[in-house]
Amino acid sequence: MESEPDHENVEQSLCAKTAEEELNKSFNLEASLSKFSYIDLDKELEFKNDLIDDKEFDIPQVDTPPTLESILNETDDEDESFVLEDPTLLNIDTIDSHSYDTSSVASSDSGDRTNLKRKKKLLDSFSLHGSVMRHSLLKGISAQIVSAADKVDAGLPTAIAVSSLIAVGTSHGLALIFDQNQALRLCLGSTSVGGQYGAISALSINNDCSRLLCGFAKGQVTMWDLASGKLLRSITDAHPPGTAILHIKFTDDPTLAICNDSGGSVFELTFKRVMGVRTCESRCLFSGSKGEVCCIEPLHSKPELKDHPITQFSLLAMASLTKILVIGLKPSLKVWMTFPYGRMDPSSVPLLAWHFVAVHNYVNPMLAFCRGDVVHFLLVKRDESGAIHVTKQKHLHLYYDLINFTWINSRTVVLLDSVEKLHVIDRQTQEELETVEISEVQLVYNSSHFKSLATGGNVSQALALVGEKACYQSISSYGGQIFYLGTKSVYVMMLRSWRERVDHLLKQDCLTEALALAWSFHEGKAKAVVGLSGDVSKRKAIVADRMVEILFHYADRALKKCPDQGKIQVMEQHFQVVLMCWENRLYDAMIYVYNRGMNEFISPMEKLFRVIAPPLNAGKTLTDEQVVMGNKLLVYISCCLAGRAYPLGDIPEDLVPLVKNQVFEFLIRLHSAEASPEEEIYPYIRTLLHFDTREFLNVLALTFEDFKNDKQAVEYQQRIVDILLKVMVENSDFTPSQVGCLFTFLARQLAKPDNTLFVNRTLFDQVLEFLCSPDDDSRHSERQQVLLELLQAGGIVQFEESRLIRMAEKAEFYQICEFMYEREHQYDKIIDCYLHDPLREEEVFNYIHNILSIPGHSAEEKQSVWQKAMDHIEELVALKPCKAAELVATHFSGHIETVIKKLQNQVLLFKFLRSLLDPREGIHINQELLQISPCITEQFIELLCQFSPNQVIETLQVLECYRLEETIQISQKYQLHEVTAYLLEKKGDIHGAFLIMLERLQSKLQELTHQGENTKEDPSLKDVEDTMVETIALCQRNSHNLNQQQREALWFPLLEAMMAPQKLSSSAVPHLHSEALKSLTMQVLNSMAAFIALPSILQRILQDPVYGKGKLGEIQGLILGMLDTFNYEQTLLETTTSLLNQDLHWSLCNLRASVTRGLNPKQDYCSICLQQYKRRQEMADEIIVFSCGHLYHSFCLQSKECTMEIEGQTRWTCYKCSSSNKVGKLSENSSEIKKGRITPSQVKMSPSYHQSKGDLTGKKATSEPVLDPQQIQAFDQLCHLYRGSSRLALLTELSQNRSSESYRPFSGSQGGPAFNSIFQNENFQLQLIPPPVTED
């Protein structure tokens, strides 16, 4: 890739962006950079199955990891002593310490020995991958760097650091801060400080872009606030004096930084702020006396990985001249890995770079380090025990020496070799994607700082030799972008998006390569892909669209080269393309080549017709592919007639009339080329009509719309219409729908105001005869629908209406009749159309409702419809009774009796009345507005007794308007005893209802006793049980409202009826159902025991003459059962009494203890006026003490309005307890009393007040005994805080729920007339333990 000059930027024009716009896009938000950041690309690229080849081996783990001190004391493992090969490189006397305007290394030999060693040369892959990187000059920053050097003597640039801001350090000690718009935001420092500290040799910006660290050539360090531009710290003692700062870097912890000096030492800087004073503590991590470190790199994590377990160690990688170290700064200093280089070229630059990658679906940091021509990758993991493991990955062998290594994402790295060439490498495949020459950048080198020229050059020869190619501070990466600092400029490089890479090849006319690159994106085989996200299908669809555009672009260029005349070889190329498209079913491409390449529009039609015509003429079904071709043919013809190119664009204006004429001439040809003798006339129109009549006619209709009324256009229209009529009317191969489509099309054309077509009216009559043919019963609905469309399209004017109606009625075309009647406003006749049409007969109800309710129709029309509906009411009810009832209730409510008279069929009348009167039918009828007379309801009940006797009682329960006497007579007429009993009960004749049920029960029992062999499952026994249960329910429902004598008149006859069969049966030969009858009798006894006293029942049984002779064995079970019930109830009564006595005793004991207990104030002063209560005794004021412990003067409380009247008594409110939550509602007061905030207090009173209070209390005591308010409070507290609800309250609640009588036991304990149920309280608990023992 070539870099663009300032005056003409080719790639900027290609991408329609300037470098400034790119920077703005890059720095707008850090989130916007995330599309280039590692984590998103990890998700896109790493979570695939094509993971890296795991030729990896674990570094052996040792029991005791080496300490930092032991490593520092190790000797260098070098076989021979270090000898400087070129001493002239260190001639410091001839080098100006402030001269940084040197040419780049690539412009001269500069001692690069790697030019002599080229191990292997990778193939140039521009044609395969295109231009991967975009290279842009930041003009705004570059111009201001040069301007600062000229105007304020800032010096030349020396270092760069990039975050959401760009910081550039200069040789005279200034730091220039630029924002996202390349505007100079701050200028930090001064030239006077630069003269003292020297040039800026290193820069670092923290994570949140709020602090800047500057390292200087003479060893000082400064910290700046990037928001305000203030100097926060000036550090001069962080490391030994006389050495330059080579690196200074923030860690993820903003209070921790790392610096590396030219002595090879590494120091940890900890920033603190104590009592407003900012300090800095320095700790040596690595001493240069044991090995010189020339590169450091802390592990930085993005915000989305801040919770990664590896980040808690704050890892730091260091590269000395002999080994690599990875140490952890937290929680304590620890060495996690050492890795020796082995033999290396001493002039090679050690390089380190961290990046998070995803391997095997786990994201972990990977450290890349290199020196020379080999790049090693180390994967760092943390196991479950908390230990860190380092795994060596596949390393990368190169044919050049590196001076910079940068991750651009997890799969792509950018390498800079010693001759200033950039190499873009795919890490997994180790394939070189692109090589870029950047010598024009004139990269700044850090050689003078490594030689420490500002402090006299007191560095080792080895470090000075490495520094010859050191450019650590000139290259900075951020958010997938790499910034290069030149002597007079700043450049930025980033990965192109996949679209830009394709467009770049297209710009250079590399169409084949662009298509191949797009195909690699489509197949997922491309490298360094940016801008493709989502699932595979979505990505493929996006790329496929771009590939189609490339193909069209290619076809355009190829076809533009096609000559109108010339060598036949050139023309043959286009025919070969056509043949290839046809063979591969690329029909759109074939049409495109014909049209654009040869201006030929008819040949594609002929080719497509030859495919679809034979099967259509033979009456065969088309295949899917043939259907697609037919649809393409229709669309192509439509485009040609409309002047549009197929599939995109427009036909040139000068060709449009010619193309239309050619297409029309082609369609109306009498015969096709190479026609057989059997071919019918007009084959092309015939084929299109057979393929899709409606769509072909739509194409013609659109074409006729565009025609101008010139003579030729009119001739073409008439000619085509004549051909259509000849083909379809004279041929029996077309269906009624196809014929109808044609005449509908003609009717629409004839109905136009500017119509010029002529169609013989007799043809319409022929079509009418064809569609209304009574001899043909097939396709009845299809023929009717076709004729309806024809009439609606304007064809009505072509027919005689009376003849049309007659033929439609004869053919039973009721929709046609409706259409005609509606035109003549004969709405009543439409009702007959609906009733006679089986497909639409249920729609008649909505039609009648709409005519009668929607305004717009005259009174005569509505009356005719109303009368017609009344005449056909029996048919309507037979059709849908519920709809008919709803219609009658809405529009015929005053003529219901007339409707009933018209319904002669009793079954229909029953269904109609049930829909009208029974609300369970789901019809929304307002019965009050309907005002149905009782005789109609009784007529319905009589019909119900005839047709559905089992539903009479259920229906009576929901009916309202009927008379009891007449209804009882109806039920007696049809001998429905249950219904009669229900009605008598509703009337109030309980005894009469009971007698009917009893008589029915006795008859059932008689049937049971006279049966022969039956089992317990016999249906008659089931009938007895059901009848008995109904009778018991009748007695139970009404016993509450009867006196004792009336109750006995119900229950004892029932008991006798159940015991009668047992008396009649012999004891020697028991009845088959005797056990079942005994069980039923016991059920009667258990039910009546709740209403009849047990002694009365027992006495009645013993007085029976059958049992009065001493034969008690038969009734022993009954008596023992009653005795058990008595014992149970006696035990229950005794237990309840005992519990109540215990409750009362326990409550009184605790009440006494609470009342006699004094109140203990929390302080001896008033909580409002804050004065001791003793000082105000002379004012005869009262002292009020609350149970919460607060103490007040009564005057103070009154001034705060802390008194209220509750049930005629004055209550005081604790001011402090209620001040945070003001009590304003009486309903809240009761809860406050329980908490001790509103309480009658112990009062120290004057004698007069005491006397008046006592008189009042005495008067109340004479009227009724009441508890003192304080006693009430204590009792409530006991009940709620200690015990919950008392047993007395439980029993009282149960007695209230059990009976609605006025008398309730323990009603005197109620404190008020209305209380919420205690069982509904969410805190209610049933405590079944005895009460606690209370100590006095």
UniProtKB/TrEMBL annotation:
Residues 1252-1262 have a biased composition (Basic and acidic residues). InterPro entries: Quino_amine_DH_bsu, Vps41/Vps8, Vps8_central_dom, WD40/YVTN_repeat-like_dom_sf, WD40_repeat_dom_sf, WD40_rpt, Znf_RING, Znf_RING/FYVE/PHD. It comes from the Eukaryota. Residues 1166-1218 form the RING-type domain. Residues 1239-1251 have a biased composition (Polar residues). Keywords: Metal-binding, Phosphoprotein, WD repeat, Zinc, Zinc-finger. Residues 1228-1262 are annotated as: Disordered. One of its GO terms (cellular component) is CORVET complex. GO terms for molecular function: zinc ion binding. PANTHER family: VACUOLAR PROTEIN SORTING VPS41, VACUOLAR PROTEIN SORTING-ASSOCIATED PROTEIN 8 HOMOLOG. Belongs to the VPS8 family. Plays a role in vesicle-mediated protein trafficking of the endocytic membrane transport pathway. Believed to act as a component of the putative CORVET endosomal tethering complexes which is proposed to be involved in the Rab5-to-Rab7 endosome conversion probably implicating MON1A/B, and via binding SNAREs and SNARE complexes to mediate tethering and docking events during SNARE-mediated membrane fusion. The CORVET complex is proposed to function as a Rab5 effector to mediate early endosome fusion probably in specific endosome subpopulations. This is Vacuolar protein sorting-associated protein 8 homolog. It comes from Saimiri boliviensis boliviensis.
